[in-house]
Write a structure and sequence with these properties.
Structural class: mainly beta
Number of strands: 22
Order of helices and strands: EEEEHEEEEEEEEEEEEEEEEEE
Strand content: over 45%
Shape: elongated
Number of helices: 1
Helix content: under 10%
Distance between the termini: 15 Å
């Protein structure tokens, strides 16, 4: 078994930023649940903010998201109404929400994933699957008046970090799957607080069919317990009998919301082939690089 420990200590500055509930299933119309609700509610226009190094660009939700989940929280922080909208809707990014008059906190969460999104009380969001996707979120306190549909415009900020790795060697045919253990990171995101839940450890296993003889270029999307933190990612490459063939440990790596932490180097041998020139994705903040010289 080949085992490598990669440590990162890079400091960079980043600027970014149930009681009874009524379920509205999508879409453009919403579902009225009382006479008042037929003419009472919110019309919400959603845009995504993609922060770059020198500027911030606002784009339509459909450019980077496939699903939008929303919830109206009552004054006690409990979900009063909730719903989802998919990119199959011809008005994707525009939410037509029917509700009773009152004071609410509107939670909106957009994602590139197709899996189910859950919004709990006080604005806690999590994926039913263990996999986290590109995500944007925002909240706003709103006052809904009787017989009035209030127009609202919301800009959702990216709320995730990204760990990207580029292997400079090729994956052997003996590798069947990749088992990943994440430590010190979050599985849930609190939209109101603007950060992930309590740091925890979680795992997932990824089939590696079709990668034999190829250099790996992949990434994991992460929820962080703070806008800037350290965490560890343990990557075990397994054979078909789940024996560990190669292991790469990224210990105390630096992660930031709206930034990519990037590793380029050998993952299956002690020395990889020459690294190709990497392109910096301009729709993310500045990359945090973990150099191969940091290998122990």
């Amino acid at each position: 078994m080949v085992r490598k420990i990669i440590c990162s200590a890079i400091a960079l500055l980043v600027i970014a930023f149930s009681s009874c509930e009524k379920i509205v299933v999508d879409d453009s119309e919403g579902t009225a649940t009382s006479k008042d609700e037929a003419t009472t509610g919110l019309v919400v226009k959603c845009n995504l903010l993609k922060t770059q190094l020198t500027r911030a660009t606002t784009v339509q939700a459909s450019k980077y998201a496939k699903r939008i989940a929303w919830a109206l929280l009552d004054t006690e922080g409990k979900v009063a109404y909730k719903g989802e909208q998919t990119s199959e809707s011809n008005v994707f990014g525009s939410l037509n929400i029917n509700c009773d008059p009152g004071e609410y906190r509107l939670i909106v969460f957009a994602t590139s994933g197709k899996g189910e999104i859950n919004i709990d009380e006080n604005g806690m969001v999590f994926y039913t699957e263990k996999q986290i996707y590109e995500s944007f979120a925002a909240y706003k306190d709103v006052s809904v008046k009787k017989n009035k549909r209030t127009p609202i415009s919301m800009t959702l900020d990216r709320c995730v970090s990204n760990f990207t790795f580029h292997s400079t060697d090729v994956m052997p045919a003996s590798v069947s799957s990749l088992h990943v253990t994440y430590s010190g990171l979050s599985t849930k995101y609190n939209v109101v607080l603007g950060k992930g839940d309590t740091p925890t450890t979680y795992e997932r296993t990824i089939p590696m069919t079709g990668f034999t003889g190829k250099q790996l270029n992949s990434s994991f999307v992460l929820f962080l317990p703070e806008s800037e933190c350290t965490g560890s990612i343990d990557m075990q490459f397994l054979d078909e009998n789940n024996n560990i063939l190669f292991e790469d440990n990224f210990v105390d790596a630096k992660f930031m919301v709206n930034h990519k932490t990037v590793y380029t180097g050998a993952m299956f041998t002690s020395a990889g082939v020459d690294s190709e020139e990497l392109l910096i994705a301009t729709d993310w903040g500045e990359d945090i690089n973990i150099n191969e010289e940091a290998l122990n």
